[in-house]
Design goal:
By secondary structure, the chain is mostly beta strands. It is 8% helix and 34% strand. It has three helices and 19 strands. Strands 1, 2, 3, 4, 5, 6, 7, 8, 16, 17, 18 and 19 form a twelve-stranded mixed sheet that branches. The chain has a five-stranded antiparallel sheet with strand order 14-13-12-9-15. A two-stranded antiparallel sheet has the order 10-11. A hairpin with a 7-residue loop joins strand 7 and strand 8. The longest helix is centred in the last third of the chain and has 7 residues. The radius of gyration is 21 Å and the shape is elongated.
Length: 253
């Protein structure tokens, strides 16, 4: 089996519903710097930011800066890296805290206010164009993504849709780095997709890749679960994915 590997646009967590988490926090010395709160819309309606993967949160309770789980390094001090309907970030507006502009996240914790620096919601942190989607036109061997690039009998089959790290096409010493929403470690032509398997991938021989794979059309869908969410070459250039018929941007550091 290929080893699971982390890529910017896919989360390692399963497509499950995440409940509202209570912040178990310790008080910190600083307080929110007095500044006006600015609504993004005049009618004060929510604005969808998209998905923010592991972006640093600044948490406040009763005007006091706190850390989740009594530790600055706790995971709850960062946005989730999951991609699902419960991790879509929304805001009413923004304010300055200690001279830095922050979005206030809507309904993120039930006993604390959560802020994320506005700078992370920019093109710089929303560029997934280094990935492209390809069609596999013939059965091709996919070596394991390990130090030895060992042959474990894994392969892609005709009709498979794979995601390719474009940098590997010219920077990789030996192989083309790929990802696939495979379920069984073999191939995905049977349509059996699982979200947690979407980060599995193999290494392809450059000559065989050139011979047996071709760039997918702009609207070819690379599913990351059983039909609810998918990427296309068009959406990757924009830095996001489609979920339940809507397009969402993805931001990460």
């Amino acid at each position: 089996m290929f080893r699971n590997k982390f890529i910017k646009l896919l989360a390692a967590a399963a497509f499950t519903i995440v409940g509202i988490v209570t912040v178990n926090a310790v008080l910190h010395a600083s307080t929110v710097q007095a500044s006006a709160f600015h609504y993004i819309r005049k009618d004060h309606k929510l604005v969808t930011l998209g998905f923010g993967q592991k972006l640093p949160l600044r948490l406040y309770r009763n005007g006091k800066h706190i850390y989740a789980d009594d530790s600055p390094t706790a995971e709850l001090n960062y946005t989730d890296d999951s991609i699902n309907t419960e991790t879509i970030l929304k805001t009413h507006g923004w304010k300055y805290i200690n001279g830095i502009k922050y979005y206030k996240l809507y309904d993120y914790f039930n006993d604390a206010s959560a802020y994320v620096p506005v700078k992370y919601f920019t093109k710089k942190y929303n560029d997934l164009s280094y990935l492209s989607i390809y069609n596999v036109n013939h059965k091709i061997k996919a070596l394991a993504d390990d130090m030895q690039n060992s042959d474990q009998g894994d392969w892609y089959g005709k009709g498979d849709i794979i995601m390719v790290n474009n940098y590997s096409l010219w920077n990789h010493d030996k192989y083309v780095d790929t990802y696939s929403p495979m379920q069984d470690g073999k191939h995905n032509a049977d349509g059996a997709f699982t979200y947690t398997s979407a980060t599995i991938g193999g290494e392809l021989d450059p000559a065989e890749f050139k011979k047996y794979c071709s760039k997918a059309r702009a609207n070819t869908r690379y599913y990351v679960n059983s039909g609810d969410a998918y990427y296309t070459n068009a959406s990757l250039a924009r830095g996001g994915l489609y979920m339940n018929g809507k397009f969402y941007k993805i931001y990460n550091r």
